[in-house]
UniProtKB/TrEMBL annotation:
This protein's record includes keyword Transcription regulation: yes
Keywords: DNA-binding, Transcription, Transcription regulation
Gene Ontology molecular function, alphabetical: DNA-binding transcription factor activity; transcription cis-regulatory region binding
Name of the molecule in the record: Transcriptional regulator, LysR family
Ranges for domain HTH lysR-type: 1-58
Source species of the chain: Delftia acidovorans (strain DSM 14801 / SPH-1)
Length: 309
């Protein structure tokens, strides 16, 4: 049912003049009449008695008038709510991968408070695959996850960062001479088992082991339950980490940790996903997120993170 037909019906019932209603809705008198005829056809009732000089609402029209007014008001309320996220405030459910927590998330939360104070963030930290499932169930409004290489049918995907992966160790743990062989002989540390970074790290370490005459089954590879734990282990010198260097940017800058000159693992993309028909609050939040990621990348070395939004 066309809402404009209902609006024309209510105006005509109140004013009683086709010509005046036509002026108000910026249409011709003929168009007003056609709208009423269309509504009568949709409802299966006669709304007005017409003749050359008078226009009188029928009993059926009078009975339906209050219902039409209620539908119009409900529609306007819906439209106001959709347009006024920034005026009335809203809660936005945002899911992020743990990498964001240890890098740009604090700045993002601060920027949201400054730019969009009416939006209350409800944050979830989880694995990328779990975040996608929650968004598909409409439990999350926007997520930040690693790029999947798959274009989801239910979401808009925007690139944020390209994040290189590095071999990281405590200074002095791995000698320069025969560094690759010595590094592979250490405890290898990486992200949680079952994640993309874990699988990629294992595959690369096994390939390098075979290429260097080692038995891949002799490798000792541990998946850390959290990035905070991973950083703590590598800082204690308990192994060689295959990880995002940006997670330990201060330690690399100070010299506490070093990047080993070993074959470079493939980089990861960090992306944001949100519904294809987002609310204004979601699109505004995505814009703040892009701005924050761009600013973050300006502060760290391009060797650690590059903005690709």
């Amino acid at each position: 049912m066309n809402i404009r037909f209902l609006e024309t019906f209510v105006l005509l019932a109140r004013i009683g003049s086709v010509r005046r209603v036509a002026e108000l809705v910026h249409a011709s008198p003929g168009a007003v009449s056609m709208r009423i005829r269309g509504l009568e056809s949709d409802l299966g009732v006669t709304l007005f008695h017409w003749d050359r000089k008078t226009l009188q609402i029928t009993d059926a029209g009078a009975r339906l008038l209050r219902h039409a007014e209620a539908v119009i008001e409900a529609t306007r309320t819906l439209e106001r709510a959709a347009r006024s996220d920034d005026a009335i405030g809203c809660r936005l459910r945002v899911g992020v991968l743990e990498t964001a927590v240890h890098t740009f998330l604090p700045e993002f939360v601060k920027a949201m408070g400054a730019s969009l104070p009416h939006i209350e963030l409800d944050l979830t930290v989880d694995l990328s695959t779990h975040l996608s499932e929650q968004m598909m169930r409409r439990d999350l409004d926007l997520i930040v996850r690693t790029g999947s290489g798959v274009d989801p049918q239910f979401a808009v995907v925007e690139n944020l960062l390209e994040v290189p992966v590095h071999w990281i160790a405590r200074r002095g743990l791995v000698p320069r001479k025969d560094g690759l062989h010595k590094a592979l002989g250490k405890q290898l540390l990486t992200q949680m088992r079952g994640t993309g970074p874990y699988e990629q790290a294992v595959a690369m370490a096994q390939q390098l082991a075979v290429q260097n005459g080692m038995v891949s089954s002799d490798l000792r590879i541990s998946g850390s339950p959290s990035l905070a734990a991973l950083v703590s282990l590598v800082r204690e010198g308990l192994g060689v980490a295959i990880m995002h260097g940006m997670l330990v940017a201060p330690q690399l800058e100070s010299g506490e940790l070093v990047e080993l000159e070993l074959p470079t693992p493939p980089s990861f993309r960090i992306t944001t996903w949100y519904p294809k028909s987002p609310s204004p609050g979601v699109t505004d939040t995505a814009q703040v997120l892009r701005r924050v990621c761009k600013s973050y990348c300006k502060r760290v070395s391009p060797h650690l993170a590059r903005y690709i939004g």
